[in-house]
Amino acid sequence: VEPILQVSGLTTELGDPTRPALVVDGLTLDIRAGETLALLGESGCGKSMTALSLMRLLPPSGRIKAGSVRLEGTELLTLTEAEMRQVRGGRMAMIFQEPQTALNPVLTIATQIGEAVRLHQGDVRRGRETERVVELLRAVGIPDPEQRLNEYPHQLSGGMKQRVMIAMALAGNPRLLIADEPTTALDVTIQAQVLQLLKRIQATNSLAVLLITHDLGVVAETANRLAVMYAGQIVETAPVSEFFKRPLHPYSRHLLESLPEASKRGRRLAVIPGRVPPLGAQFQGCRFVERCPAAIERCRLEVPEWQVLVEGRGVRCHLAETSGPATAVHPADPK
Ligand code: SF4
Ligand code: MG
């Protein structure tokens, strides 16, 4: 089956074109129907810029320099802005960390979701539109949806607002849902409920989901595969179960080791010594070298190439190369 989303060589820069900051650098990934791919990394690694590039919603100082983004076979990077508007909120929808920034404070729930319904289902008539809004609110687990239609965003709790955002995202019957830290702003109990909801909605609609997170607990609960991002590049990809058993990149190992056993959810990843390189930093060798406990001389001088070990399992590190695929792949891998 052809993937819903196929991204290849996506490269995005920000700022002054004569001294640009490369925020996404040659990113390649794909996601199939019914699959959740988690994009994991600390903040400042380029995760959100990846999402905004896919949606073509970059800030004015940003531009996509190279690559290809195909949604069900359609190249998005060459669409006109008018065509892209039909895709956004239609076949491809996005939910954000802070639902209040995406909801209009002066419009009722019914009006906002109704607008999304109208935009992507052209000829839905007025009466039918309300029915559809109620149906969407019910699908995202909002109790007594008929009673909530005339409420405004400020009358809803954080969890309810996120549910309304998800309902809006579903209005256009998307095939791909991009969720950027969808539960980070919520308290732990509500987080779990929203994650459950996302899982259920994904299964019901057989969606492809790109889940952006800094939280390994969220990855473990929600994703099938993950891609670890560092300084604008993917440094490791793996099925989630493989990753937890045997992370290959030193950065991945750091992420896992920095998790206290008792509480895997809700921990920030910033406990790793050192910082993500600043935007626009220049690199001669490996981007992780300043923080890597395994670094050798070669790491400063030579860029580690991306190596595919088996399908769906890749890593960008000189040491993974020298130890070779035979030992780098988990021996019990059933695939
Ligand atoms: Fe560490 Fe070297 Fe591998 Fe980079 S290439 S992650 S510095 S061992
Ligand atoms: Mg972010």
Automatic annotation (TrEMBL):
Q: What is this protein called?
A: ABC-type dipeptide transporter
Q: Where's it found, cell-wise? A: Cell inner membrane
The Swiss-Prot or TrEMBL record describes its family as follows: Belongs to the ABC transporter superfamily.
Where is the ABC transporter domain positioned along the sequence? 5-256
